[in-house]
Amino acid sequence: MSLEQFKNRNVGVQSYKTLDVGTPPKTGMEKFTQVVKRSVKGELFVGLGVVMKRMLEALFKNDMHTVKYPFEKMPISPRYRAIHEMLRLLESGNYRCIGCGLCEKICISNCISMETRYDENQRKEVSEYTINFGRCIFCGYCAEVCPELAIVHGQRYETASEQRAGFSLFEDMLTPIDQLNLQQEFDGFGAVSPNADDNIKQTPLAY
Amino acid sequence: MSELETIDNMISITIDGTEFKAKEGEYILNAARANNVFIPAICYLTRCSPTLACRICLVEADGKQVYACNAKVKDGMNITVDTPNILEERRAIMEVYDVNHPLQCGVCDKSGECELQNYTLHLGVDSQSYMIPDTKRETANWSSVLHYDAGLCIVCERCTTVCKDMIGDAAIKTVKRGGEALDKGFKDSMPKDAYSMWNKLQKSIIAPSNGTGETNCSDCGECAAVCPVGALVSRDFVYSSNAWDLKRVPAVSAHSSDGFQIYYEVKPTSIEDRTEKIYRVTNEWNYVSLDGSARFAYDFQNTTATKDEKAFNSAIEAFKKADTIRFNSMITNEEALMLQTLKEKMGVKLYNPEVKAFQTFLNYYEASSGNSLWTTDTDSIMKKSDFVISIGSALRNDSPGMKYAFNNVQKLNKGAGLYFHPVGDTLIPTFGKNIESFNHKVGLEELALYLVLDLFADKDKLPEDVKSYIDSFKKSEKQTIQEKLVKTVKEMVLNEESGEEEEVSKKVTEMVEKEVTVTVNTLVDILGGDSSKFDATFEKMMKKKESFVMMLGEDLYYHNKAENIAKLVALVEATCNIDIVMTPPKSNALGVALICELDDEQSGYTIGYNENGDFRLSALGNGDIDMPAMNQQEGTLTSMNKRVLPTNAAVDYNGYELNDLMKELIDAPELTIDWTQKLPTDRGFKSVAFDDLPNSFENDGTDNRGYILETSNVDTELPKVEKCDESSVLDGEIAYRCNPARQFNDFTDKSHEIFEPFALYASKDKAESLGEKVEVIFDNGTITLDVIADEKMTGDIVKVADFKALEGVYDLFGGSRYKTVTLRKV
User: Fold this and answer.
1) Of B582, B611, B640, which residue sits at a domain end?
2) What is the C-alpha to C-alpha distance for residues B752 and B754, in angstroms, rounded to an integer?
3) B569-628, pLDDT tens digit by residue?
4) A77 is a domain residue
5) Side by side, which strands form the sheet with B578-582?
């Protein structure tokens, strides 16, 4: 690679294109004419007309165009990255997290900690799990790396709190067992793509 | 040793077009590893015999496919690591290993450091072409420390190999799995080696070799260390941490005197408690094998310590009025030097019953042999020796490193061994076919050395009196022996064809009784052997043997004829072609012996450092002032291999150190490790700063840790040895001061993965006759102990553990290791 472009230190002039925005008014008269033109052109009334139309719709057709936040919330994209949720297996109600520790490892702000142990059923059990939301930058890597779709980003985007460092434990993020039927499959980061089956070669099975 | 090898035995080989030097007779794989060339291999362990289980180390040598792990290098050999055919074999082998391997990497303890993962990725296995129905394989706990998940096992047999070839317990073996037979179609469709490897794999699984579900072994955990997958894991570690979360702290095993290289692996204790905790101990298992205390006795740190100024001031007071400092060998070189400096400046006595006898013995040895230290070490024993003699050490309990060397020589160097010890041990003879074990009476160690002189000495060099003394044991005896006699008998037989009688000669064997005069070596009989068979056995043992070594143990240091024994050892060294190695009793005994001038006894006001005393410094947290334990401090330890090894702090320590006291008392430097440079150079230490000490192994296994002590050698005359005084033989009920295999001191006992109790250990029969609990009555006191049967012991001598300093077992035994006692059932 040539070092030419590094040696040209006239920063800011090499590859910029200027837009044609016309020439700004110069004399006092030109400025006055511009103000008058903009004020009385009638565009103002177009806007007022739209507002009037929506108001009438709301009053007489019961067609609201605003939501009553915080009592109502707009639906957000599944790809939005808000406070994490821990999902359960739909069939058994057990939590999906297997304690593999990949989220802990990949977390770039180092805010996930977990403890695991060998439980009575000879399985790996997550005995403690916490995310420090004072540090979390909601990058979504944890959800993307999770092999079980256990940790996902939910819809709770209000993260304002009294103190900067807010911790959440496993139970706080876990789907409540009585709301298991309401648990939504996650379409965001790390979710299985619709054509996933086409991209893998199946392992032969002897039975 | 190394000089010889570098000059004489180096040949040149070519690997993938690059020329390398290799030792003659070495396996291709080892030569490649030594030269930093990567050849994939799963089942081979550098210091063990080839298993040929994985077949992945296939290479092409001079146009022929060979297994790199069991084909030896030849001069001018041309080796290609990858050929298309070999790559195909390797890929097929890895695919086979992945067949039915549980997809639980997410939870597996080995994930991230798993060789199955690594090689699967390395060989680019992204699809599977083989299949077979799986067999249910159960998870089992083999012992108090071993957890085996058969489902994950790839039967590489590394565990069984290391247990047999290195550890010597041979506690596990491959057994039948009861798996489905392979589809015949695979035989033609898949690569040959992959098929035969799969065929074997499908039939076998690992299990304890005694047929029960439990291993009866020394619980060293080396099998778990070498396991390439997550099949064998320590029970305590299962599912407790991912490998990548642990930080490795290089250190030295603190308990035995072997100076094993270890890593303390640490990470925060829990989410609430962010102080670091040791989760496990790992090692460079290709170059060093650990014993149970090194691997499992790691959490002995002093956690409760704080900077208690009141205790500090009273400690200063105590030091000012102290007459004696009593300590043991669980101390770094630096601390030992501090105590020695204290002695020089303040005139306190240094009392250390663990080391004193050893130090005296070393002095006797130096005076009579001219060598400042012994002449070989365990590494070179394993590399070249083929005949090992062990005298005066309960090999299985005293010194794991010596036990491994003794065993490894039998297995890998086609060696032979003589084992002299009063306590019978059933394990030692299983190390090899050519082992003679002598269970002599207590006190006859001198005669054992005389027997060594008789068997190995160059008779021209021996002094006349020794020669005649040895000859006095030889007796001519008339014996009637049965001899085979072949007679030729001539017979007249009728030839049927010709009808004539012919003379035919026939050979007939007859047993004839014959009276012969034979020389009987009664020395063998006195030592508990059988002289009638020994000559023939010994002749067989001596076949093709070149390098001889003698291991000396703690019994000799505590012998009341220690001086004469040291002279005999010097005489053996001077007249036989035998190298000597000694076992320092416990931890840093050698360092203490070299650095401190120890006194014979304690008197007056005594400060005990991890020992009994009027004022007690303790790293166990139960004394008057806290001290850091060995895993909480930096410093150096001196090992059996004459190496000064650096060890690092793995866990936090918040209290005062010995150096803080020294700063108050004498002119001491800022840090403990500032003393490292001041270690006495006239005793072989070097003036090297702690931070400059290297701590690694070379790829060919060369130990680069720390430095080797400088040893000196002065020509001396042959020592004048005395005859064996058989009056010192002990009879009756005898107690032997000896710890169970994984216990060395209070610190091993404190560790939660060490379970051997403080008790009296006896052979099975003896334990039955003693009952559950006995009172052991010595001349100067009694101790009440539980009786535990040690299945590998034989004979009537009982072992009394000494690892609890506060029980004062050393004081009960006085200056010896064996005592006649009265055992009373309680």
Assistant:
1) B582
2) 6
3) 999 999 999 999 999 998 999 999 999 999 998 899 999 999 999 999 999 988 999 999
4) no
5) B435-438, B416-420, B387-391, B548-552, B578-582
Position A71 in a domain: no
Tell whether B822 is within 8 A of chain A (Cβ).
Answer: no
pLDDT at A85: 92
pLDDT of residue B502: 74
Q: What are phi and psi of A31, to 5 degrees?
A: -65, -45
What pLDDT, on the 0 to 100 scale, is given for residue B4? 42
Domain co-membership, A107 together with A53: no
> Cis omega before residue B208 (within 30°)?
no
Query: Given an 8 Å threshold on Cβ–Cβ distance, is A204 in contact with B139?
Result: no
Q: Is B545 exposed, middle or buried (0-12, 13-18, 19+ CB in 10 A)?
A: middle
pLDDT at B791 over 80: yes
Residues within 8 A of A (CB atoms), B 229-248 only = 238-242, 244-245
Residue A127, φ and ψ in degrees, nearest 5: -90, -30
| Six-digit token string for B521 | 């070596």
As for how many domains chain B has, the answer is: 2
Does A46 map to a domain?
yes
B205-246 pLDDT per residue, tens: 999 999 999 998 999 999 999 999 999 999 999 999 999 999
Biggest CA pair distance of chain A:
90
Q: Examine the pLDDT at B204 and tell me if it is beyond 50.
A: yes
Nearest to B161 by CA among B148, B170, B152: B170
d(CA B769, CA B387): 38
Q: Domain check: are A90 and A43 in the same one?
A: no
Distance, in Å, from the CA atom of B102 to the CA atom of B99, rounded to the nearest integer, reads: 9
Instruction: Give the domain extent around B736.
Output: 729-825
- A22 within domain boundaries: no
Kindly report, residue by residue over B625-664, the tens digit of the pLDDT. 999 999 999 999 999 999 999 999 999 999 999 999 999 9
**Mean per-residue pLDDT of chain B:** 92
A176 shares a domain with A104: yes
For position B796, which CATH number holds?
A: 2.40.40.20
Q: What is the mean pLDDT of residues B103-120?
A: 94
> Given this model, what pLDDT does residue B3 score?
40
Q: How many domains does chain A have?
A: 2
At residue B552, the pLDDT reads: 95
- Confidence band, pLDDT 50/70/90 cuts, at residue A139: very high
Report how far residue B569's alpha carbon sits from residue B446's, in angstroms, rounded to the nearest whole number.
9
In a mutagenesis test of the B interface, which of A96, A100, A107, A110 is the best target, namely the one with the most B β-carbons within 10 Å?
A100
Residue where a domain terminates, one of B526, B547, B582: B582
Yes or no, beta carbons of B270 and A205 under 8 Å apart: no
- Has residue B1 been placed in a domain? no
What are phi and psi for residue B307, nearest 5 degrees? -80, 85
What is the domain range of residue A129?
84-191
| Residue B2 confidence (pLDDT) above 60 | no
A55 and A97 together in one domain: no
CATH assignment at residue A95:
3.30.70.3270
Examine the domain organization and report whether A133 and A37 are in the same domain. no
Q: Is residue B530's pLDDT more than 50? A: yes
Angle of helix B84-98 relative to helix B192-203, nearest 10 degrees? Answer: 20
Report residue A5's pLDDT band, with 50, 70 and 90 as the boundaries: low
For position B516, which CATH number holds? 3.40.228.10
- Answer yes or no: is B209 within a domain: no
CB contact set of B252 (below 8 Å; sequence gap of 6+) = B259, B260, B261, B262, B637, B639, B645, B646, B647, B705
Out of A98, A105, A205, closest to residue B107 by CB: A98
Nearest-by-Cβ selection for A206 from B132, B238, B240: B132
> Nearest by CB to B240, which of A104, A117, A148?
A117
Of residues B771 and B7, the one with the higher pLDDT is: B771
Of A20, A44, A60, the residue that ends a domain is: A60
